[in-house]
Fold this protein.
Amino acid sequence: MSAGSAQTQGNNPVKEVLSAVVRFAGDSGDGMQLAGTQFTETSAIVGNDIATLPDFPAEIRAPAGTVAGVSGFQINFAATDIHTPGDIVNALIAMNPAAFKAHIDDVETGGIVIVNDSEFEKVNLRKAGYPEGYNPLDDDQFNQKFKVYRIPITRLNQESLADTGMGAKDIGRCKNMFALGLIYWMYDKPLDTTIQYLENYFGKKKKLPQVAQANVTSLKAGFHFGETADIFATRYHVAKAPITPGKYRKITGNEALAIGLVTASHLAEKTLIYCSYPITPASDVLHYLAAMRNYGVKTFQAEDEIAAVCSAIGVAFAGQLGVTGTSGPGLALKAEAVGLAVMTELPMIILNVQRGGPSTGLPTKTEQSDLLQALFGRNGDCPVVVLAPKSPGDCFDTAIEAVRIAFRHMIPVMILSDGYLANGAEPWMLPDAHSFDKIPVEHPTDADTFEPYARDENLARPWAIPGTPGLEHRLGGLEKEHISGNVSYDPENHQTMTDLRHEKIQKVCEFIPAIEPHGNAAGDLLVLGWGGTYGSIITAVDNARKAGHSVSAAHLRYLNPLPQNLGELMSRFKKVLIPELNTGQLRMLVRAKYLVDAKGLNKIQGKPFLIEEIEQAIELMLDGSWGSRESLTPRAHQVTVDS
């Protein structure tokens, strides 16, 4: 925790800190995501800046009590501007031995570790993989390194709810609220927001007033335990962050994509039809959009990925906003149909919320390894526009920009989000509804002047609505003749059409802004990134600049086409570093296209970059100790040379 001043409140001094990183961890049935989400909501409402990192088990239901079944939720809340969920955990709440084992190495030396002592019994210790007869809470190495508080949360929760008449199983489900109440007390947070949520969700929506009251009782019991137990020497307080005045809400990347797509559909006066097959971590976009029927949204859960993308093509053919969403494995299945959308030159949106791969890989972990698939993963010369948001809130703007490009240029646009952005949250200021420009759409109606493959100044074909009298024409996967649209096997025509499809992508460059550096316009080192690496890169570069180094950052939203001034920007710096959550896909493209000797920091561990990892790479680049290697990889919080 960033240090600050201290004041006394009751029997416990309250220490002012600039920021704190808290992680809730327990079995996947312990309600850690709910506890973390509620702590996030409260932190946002009291005015802290926030960044979160939910961590889900990959198995649908891993064996209870095992490390594979641990679910975690990390939140960084601060009185200053932050961009990441934090490098090191200041306080860990471990609800069982498996959670302790999975997360203890991430806690700072001297950090707070609150354990549910009730669960540290022989069977659970064995399930967590500890040796017979060993309890880590009795091990001096942990007690000397951390402030370990052994609290029988399960038993205390049972005692607080003994008079409710509920069964033991239902009572056990409330223990996450006891833990949350305790952390609210420790970090000087009010209970009101969570009480209101519990009463509304269980008492009104679920019509379970007894469950609502039990959870509220447990929440208050945890809070009052902190007040009365007299075992904690210090409480902590994080003040409000200085933010631009406005109305804010907490938003995740998947929520922002959904809201952005709905907004774009209204700006274009088109019906949004979302066609998807459920896949982690993209499924929530389908869930959010399914709940937005009152905005004219239609959702279709297809039987497979191919049916989903083909349905979205059908929507675009019919003149509406067709969107399909998936993750990396699903994008592979959609590849042939995306080629059909390119060949037919229909505007559609493809969401790819990336996850660890290959194959099933790491379904609940983040990665950036689908860049080359997005650019080249189809047969033939088959270009699409590719965009990547940089933060959860930026997913909203990226979704609108994707639709604007698709409709202006009559082309498929792919959005590369990732699991970190999709599930992570940040404060998002609600935009002014009047600040958006309409997305213009025109459909031909004059049969006398209609030419199906004629093109406008952006090389976009006319978007003819099926059934319009006199506008009948051929459409499909076979190559067509320029202007007429008739099927053509002429070699020169195929060359012409291939060149036109490529040139149409490059035309997008005329509408995208020049990339601007964060920092000086020239210097010793440029750190270039894309997608969800933004927060770690910006923070690391800011820290390096405060230390007096000549370092700047640049972040790409437009990956195909790349900004026109990217090559010129890189030429102004002596060295270029590209951190990516893959083996160096953007680095390969930059080296090939611009002949720049860019170096790579490449992490493929299912986790986002730590700020510390990028800081270490910056130091190695600046002091000349990087060597001749193309890339380095972070291991165990240290940047080391790949062998």
